[in-house]
Design brief:
single chain; mainly alpha; 2 helices; about 50% helix; elongated
């Protein structure tokens, strides 16, 4: 029987094996997106601001409501 490299588990290639850290990152990202879409106005605004910051986009300019 041939010995497998240490990063291969159960016949999967290393790219197919997800680490717990990447799962936490995906879960956190999904939580932010769900909060942005379905949260209260206050939480939704904060989640969209966080997404803009992560995407390195500027804050939108404020419009006068008149």
């Amino acid at each position: 029987m041939t010995e497998q490299p240490p990063d291969v588990r159960d016949g999967q290639a290393p790219s197919e094996v997800t680490s717990p850290d990447s799962r936490r990152g995906r879960a956190a990202g999904l939580a932010v997106v769900i909060t942005a879409l379905f949260g209260s106005d206050r939480f939704s605004e904060r989640a969209f601001r966080l997404l803009r910051r992560l995407a390195d986009r500027p804050e939108p300019t404020k419009r006068d409501r008149g």
